[in-house]
Request: fold
Amino acid sequence: MKFTLSVLSTLAVVSAAPIEDRAVPFQQAAAAPWNAGAVNDWQIHPSCNASQALQIRTGLEETVKLAAHAKNHVLRWGNESAIYRKYFGNSPSAEVIGAFDLVASGDRGGALFRCDDPDGNCAPNPTTWAGHWRGNNATGETVICPLSFQIRRPLVSLCGLGYNVRQSSRVVYWASDLLHRLYHMPAFGQNYIEHYASGYDGITAAAAAGSSNSTHDSDGLQYFALEAYAYDVVVPGVGCPGPSGKLGATSSAAAPAATSSAASTSSGAAAAATTSRAATISTAATSTATAATAATTSAIPANCHTHADGAIHCV
Reply:
């Protein structure tokens, strides 16, 4: 009896206690999102004024559009696409898809675009340098020089003003130029997407020969993205690939020198002019004269190199 009373007494005390004192809520720390810390916006340095920042940001949006379409083209057609085979041969498509998806969908924290010329390359070369990767000075940074804001075209003008993929510069457009600049930075190129073959003819010849570098050649990825976008989107079923077959020594695209960094030369005099704006801005020049290459090489700025076809590429 005493035991029963004791139990009842204890229960009465417990029952009389406020509910909030008796209820101990189950606590669990919220897990961080799987992508915590992701950077989804392009990073533009404060040294770029409002107009420059807008142009760079718009150009990067076009770069994403260009890369995304290139990826989707390959996802749809694989290595059966004639455009794919032109630039990558019969190589498996996984590497190409990945290269474009890094740009279209990858984290954007590893790339900074700036306009303040910290390495002093833009100011001394106002008509020849449109920008450069900072290399060992800052591997995740690219400088956009004032010249870029004068000569780059929007992607909507692809195939206009005499442009064709084969003969015109790869970097006429903001989209393709910034694609090239992104691949220089380890976050996107991963020290794997590099320059291997030189110029359109070199790229397509390497692909035809089955080069293992074709699917991670920076220039080839640019050419492919431009041609696929032109063929699928801009002029459906036609595009603007340029002439096929072997070109004559004097063949060139009808594009103003001030807006294209391509320079087609067939004589020593024309080659000497490749030290001007048109040839120095990361381009695919086509030269058939040995003297042309020598003349160009003797005048290239620091941080630039000459490809086998005479093109000068500045990082």
In short: The two ends are 95 Å apart (CA to CA). The CA atoms of residues 97 and 297 lie 35 Å apart. Residues 1-5, 250-303, 305-311 have pLDDT under 50 and may be disordered. The longest strand covers residues 141-144.
